[in-house]
Design brief:
With 163 residues, this protein is mainly beta. It has one domain: Porin (Beta Barrel). The radius of gyration is 16 Å and the shape is elongated.
Amino acid sequence: MQKCTMIGLMMVLLVLLVPVKIPAQEAGHGSKEKGLEHRHGTELFIGNTHDDGEDGFTVGLGYEYRLNQLLGIGGIVEYAGGDFEDWILAVPFILHPYKGWRFLVAPGVSIPNNDEHDEFLFRVGAAYEFEIGKKWALIPAFNVNFVDNKEVLTFGLGFGYKF
């Protein structure tokens, strides 16, 4: 495997090893922070990736662990087909400033399916979670990936589940 691919896989594994309990929980302060009922969230993303006339159907999986009411950390695995044929692995740091709004920054790696080399990727994005019941959400999202001196747009709809 190429060095960049190994770094990406290590970042995803690091996210999966985030501790499930936080110190306040262990100290007996309760398992629910005020207004924070679910700490874990998963998401299926379906959308499009666009760059300078090229398009590709995009599908991805995401995970988030809410550290507190304001911050979360997670993992993203995404595939962009069509003109791209690329995989993306990233570790998002997520800000939840107000109601359903969320903003993210995510370092990661873009892994092409051809003989090209892996590229470092930096993603910034915005989304809004429309809650459906207590555990489900529809999440329109817009992201910009900075990779290989280009700005690549990814946009679509996520289907989220919180637990």
